[in-house]
Fold:
Amino acid sequence: MTVNAPVIEQFRTSGDARPESTSPSEAGSPTEPAPSLVIEPPRGWTSLNLAELWRYRDLLSLLIWRDISSRYRQSVIGYGWAVLKPVLTMVIFTVIFGRVAKIPSDGAPWALFCFVALVPWMYFSSSVSSVTTSVVQSSQFLTKVYFPRLVLPLASAAVGLMEWAVQMLVLAVLMAAYQVVPPWHIVFAPVFAVICVLVTLAFGIWLTALNVKYRDVGQIVPFLLQAWMYLCPIVYPISLIPPRWRLIYALNPMVGVVEGFRWSILGTSTPDWTMMFVSLAMVTGLFVGGLYYFRKTEIAFADVI
Amino acid sequence: MLPAVRVQNLGKSFRLGVTHAGSLRELVNRATSRLTGRAARAASRVPEDAGRVGSDGLFWALRDVSFDVQPGQVVGVIGRNGAGKSTLLKILSRITYPSTGRVEINGRVASLLEVGTGFHPELTGRENVFLNGTILGMTKREVARSFDEIVAFAEVDKFIDTPVKRYSSGMHVRLAFAVAAHLQPEILFVDEVLAVGDASFQQKCLAKMSDLGNDGRTILFVSHNMGAVRQLTSECVVIHDGAVLYRGPSDQAVDRYLERQRSAARASTNVVDLPRVRWAGDRSVEFVDVALRSPASHKLTVGQRLAVAVTVRAKQDVNQFGFTVTIYTNDGEPLATTFGDSVGSIQVGQSRTFELEIPDAGFAPGSYWMSMAILRSSRVVVDAVHEVAPFEVLPDGRIPSGFTEWIVNWGNLRIPMTCKPIDRLAPPVEAAVSRS
Structure:
C-alpha cells in the first residue's frame, strides 16, 4: 500500500489540474505587451547581443573554472606542467639557437631572452588550438541546450591565462637568478598580454566557427602554429630581419605582441610603434569580423555539427 | 491573456543529399556539381518520407505547424519517431532555427532535452550541480539557493564531494534530473527525460513534473510514453509527418495517435517488403502477410482472445518450423514471449497460412504490438518481422474505484488473484506436495 500511495496521490493531483488548465484564455487585452522572446528564421544582420552574453557570465566563469580545475586532475605534477613545458623548451632553444647557432639576443641573457618570448607564444599557440576545437568539442551540449555559443571560445581563451600567471612567477625567479632589473616600462606588460588575448580570439573565433563546418581546420591549425613560431621573434631578435622586409613581417600580429612583451620586461630594442599600430588595427578588424561571422553562423551550429 | 507559447506556421527544412558537416572535398564536389548544373542527389536517403521532400529537394522536418499554449497548461507533444517532435522542441529551445514561421514565448523559459548536459566526469557532484545549473540558464546564486534541495532530491548527499565518474549510472541520472527539476522557469520544455533511471525514480520524476504543472507552470512535454502523457498532460498536439494532425484533450489525442498508427499498419498487412531486423535469418521460410483476426477492430477487451493470421512462403524445403511471438508495449519494451510448437514441413514455393492464437493473457489497458519470428528445427531464426499486428487493450470496469484509467506504474499485466478468508494458517503447500 505504501508503494501505491504516491501513485494515487499523484494521479489525483494531475487529474484535478485538468479542468482548470483546459479553460480557454480571455480575449487578448487591447494593450498586449510584447512577447519576451521571438524565434524567427534568421535574416539580415545579426546583432552581437553582448547583453545576453553578460547574462550568461556565470556560465562563462564556471566553464573557465571547470577547465582550469580539471585540466591537471589525476596528474602527479599538476600545474608543474605549466612550468616544465616552457622551461624545457627554453633549455632546448638556448642550447640549439643560443649556444650552437650563436644567434644574437639583443644583449639579454639568452635563456631569459627566449623565455620572455615563449610565455606569450605558448599561451597563443595552445589557446588557438583549444579555442579552435572548443565548439566542436562541446557538441554534446550544443545540441541539447541553448546558450550564447560565444561563451565556449571565450572560456577556452581564458583558461590558458592561468598557466600564463604561473609562468610569470617562473620568469620572476629567472630574472632574479640572472640579476636582471626590469625597466620602468614593465607597466606595459599587461597591455601586451591583453593584446595577445585579443590576437588569440581574433584567430580563434574565426577558426572555431569554420571548424564546425570544415573539420579540416582542426587538422591544419597545429601544423600552421608550428611553422608560425618561426615567423615570430622568439629564437631570434627582430634586428635580424632586414629593414625592407619588416613591414611585411609585422603583418604577423604576434610579432608585435612578442616584441612588445619582451621590450616591456627586459628593456631590449624599442618596438616600432607605427608597425605596432598597424598590426593592432588589423587584429581589431579581424576580431570584430570574427565576432560577426561567429554570430551569423552559430545559429546553424547544431544542424551542422 | 497572452499565450505562453504561440507557434505560427513553423517550418524547418534540410537539404537532402548533402551532409551537413562537410570536408573540403564535399565543398569542392558541391561547387563542381553546381557549375556543371548537375542536381544534387537527393531524396534517396529518406525514402519512406518521400511526401516530405519538396520539388526543390528540401526535406521538411516540420511544415506549417501552428498552435498556442496558454499559461499554466501542461501540453503533450506526441508522434512517432521522425515525425518532427524533436525538431519542434529544438526550435522552441533555440538550439536550431526555423526556416519559416515564428514562435512567440512569454515568460522565463527553460528546456530540458537531456539530463546531465555538460557533466564533467572529473568534477565532483557539487561542482557539476553548479556547472549544469548554469548551463541550463540559472545563475550561481539560484543554484546555491536550491542546492540542498537538489542534493536531497537526488539522494546522493554522501557522495556530493566525490567525482561523478565514480557514481553509478543511477546516481548520475538522479543528480542530473534533480538539477533540472529545480529550475524555476515559467515555461518548461521537456523531452523524453523520464525514460531514465529506475522505476521508483521515474515515479518521483513524474510526481515532480506534476507538481510543477500544479504550480501553474506551463509545460510542453514530448514523449512516447502514452501513460505518462495521459497522466501529466491536459492537452496534446499530435505531430505526424512534420505537421499537426490533431490538437485537443489528451485522451482523444492519444487515441487519435494510436488510431493513426493502427490504420497505417492495417492499410497493409503485407510484410514481405518490411525491413527486417538485423538478426533475421536467411528467409528460407519468410513472412508474407500478418493480419490480426481477433479482434478485427484491433481493440481488445478483457477476456477476448488474440488471434493472428500468418501467411508464410518457402524458398527452400524445410522439414520442421514453428513460430514465436513477442508482445511489446507501445514504448518498445518487450512484455511477454511465447514459443509455438512445430507446425510441420513446407516445400519450396509453397505458401501456407496459420492462425496463431493467444488466450486472454491479462494485458493491462494500453497499446501493444508484436514481433514474430519463424524458427527452423532447433532455434534457428529464418525470418523475423518487427512492429506488426498492433492492438489496444481497452480499459474495463475492473480498474480500481477512484481511477479512470490504468496507471503506468502498475505494470502491463493484470494477474489474477483470489482472496478468501481462512480460519487458521494451513501448513505450507510445499510440505504437503513433498509428502505425497
Remarks:
- The beta strands of chain A are 37-39.
- Chain A touches chain B through 60 residues (CB under 8 Å).
